[in-house]
Specification:
- The protein is an alpha+beta fold and 297 residues long.
- The protein is built from nine helices and nine strands.
- Strands 5-6-7-8-9 form a five-stranded mixed sheet.
C-alpha cells in the first residue's frame, strides 16, 4: 500500500518558495509568503489544461469499440440480445482496464536513464535493457534518437512554479537537443494532442521566470514531446484493422506501428502563442470554479 505521508520538498527562488509535493495524490502545496501563501494548494498545469474538451477521440473510440463488439456477434451468425448491448456500452472500459502498460515501463526506463546520465544519487548503475520485445523496440528507438540528436540532459523531473501566474508542475526533462535549449515531456499514449504544446510552454515559462529572478537567465528555443506507445504491435494492428472494418475500408493499408515517436516544436513565436493558450485555460478554469452552480452549493 502506498504511503500517503510521503512528501517531497523543493526550495525555489533562492529559498523564498518551498514546494511540498505529495506523490500519492499528485498534489502540490506552496509556501510563498511574498504572495501570501502558506502551505497553500496550487493547481498544476495539467489540471488547468483539463478544461479543454478532449472527448472527441474518446467518444469515437468508445463507439467503435461498442460497434465492433456487436459486429463480432453478428459475424458469428448469432442474435444480439439486450445483454450484448449492455456489454457493448461498457466494452471500452473493460479494454482500457486490460490494456497493456508497456508505455509506463518505457517511461520509467527513460527517466532512470536520464537520471543515470545526470549522475543522480541512487542511479549510478546503468539501466538494463528490457527483455520484452515491444519495450526493447521503443527503448532502442529512444537511444537512437538520443545519439542522433546529440541530446545533453540538463535536468530531470524538475518542479517549476510561476509566482507571476500562480501555477505549478513538473517538467519531465530539460536538455540541449540539436544545439537548442529544449524542454520535454513524455506521453504514454496512442497519440499526441495539442495540449502538450501549452503544457511544455507553461513549464518553460515558469523555469525562465525563476532563472531570471535568480540572475541566471535562460531562454528556451525549442520543445519536444516524446510519445511512448501503451499498446503492443499486435494490439495496434488489430485495433487499426478493426477500425477499418467500421469505416468500410477492409484491406486498406494502415500506418506502421511506432513504439516510440517524438515531435519537435521550434521557435519563440509559437511558444508565446501556446503559453497564451495555456493562460486562457487557467483563466477559464478559475472562472468555472468561481461560478459553477453545483460546485458552489
Amino acid at each position: 500500500m502506498a504511503d500517503k505521508t510521503i512528501i517531497e520538498t523543493t526550495k525555489m527562488y533562492g529559498g523564498e518558495v518551498i514546494i511540498d509535493f505529495y506523490p500519492t495524490s499528485h498534489m502540490y502545496k506552496v509556501t510563498d509568503e511574498k504572495n501570501g501563501l502558506v502551505k497553500k494548494r496550487v493547481k498544476g498545469v495539467t489540471t488547468f489544461l483539463g478544461i479543454k474538451d478532449k472527448s472527441m477521440p474518446l467518444v469515437s473510440w468508445a463507439t467503435e469499440t461498442a460497434g465492433l463488439h456487436l459486429y463480432d456477434i453478428l459475424h458469428k451468425g448469432e442474435t444480439i440480445t439486450m445483454s450484448d448491448i449492455r456489454d457493448a456500452i461498457g466494452k471500452h472500459k473493460q479494454i482500457k482496464e486490460e490494456a497493456a502498460t508497456i508505455g509506463k515501463e518505457m517511461h520509467e526506463w527513460c527517466e532512470y536513464f536520464i537520471k543515470h546520465k545526470l549522475k543522480r544519487p541512487g542511479y549510478e548503475t546503468a539501466p538494463k535493457l528490457p527483455t520484452d520485445p515491444q519495450q526493447l523496440l521503443g527503448i532502442n528507438s529512444f537511444l537512437e534518437w538520443y545519439t542522433a540528436h546529440k541530446v545533453q540532459f540538463i535536468d530531470s523531473e524538475r518542479v517549476v512554479y510561476s509566482r507571476k501566474h500562480q501555477y505549478i508542475g513538473t517538467m519531465d526533462f530539460d536538455a540541449i537537443i540539436d544545439g537548442k535549449r529544449t524542454g520535454g515531456d513524455f506521453k504514454s499514449s496512442n497519440g499526441l494532442y495539442n495540449t502538450v504544446l501549452a503544457q511544455i510552454s507553461a513549464y518553460q515559462a515558469a523555469r525562465e521566470e525563476e532563472a531570471e529572478y535568480l540572475g541566471t537567465p535562460i531562454k528556451y528555443e525549442s520543445r519536444v514531446a516524446v510519445r511512448l506507445s501503451k499498446e503492443t504491435e499486435s494490439e495496434y494492428n488489430v485495433r487499426m484493422e478493426r477500425k477499418n472494418i467500421m469505416k468500410d475500408k477492409v484491406g486498406e493499408p494502415i500506418e506502421p506501428y511506432k513504439a516510440f515517436e517524438w515531435k519537435t516544436f521550434d521557435g519563440r513565436e509559437s511558444h508565446e502563442r501556446d503559453l497564451a493558450g495555456f493562460l486562457l485555460t487557467k483563466a477559464l478554469t478559475e472562472w468555472d470554479d468561481a461560478t459553477d452552480f453545483y460546485k458552489n452549493k
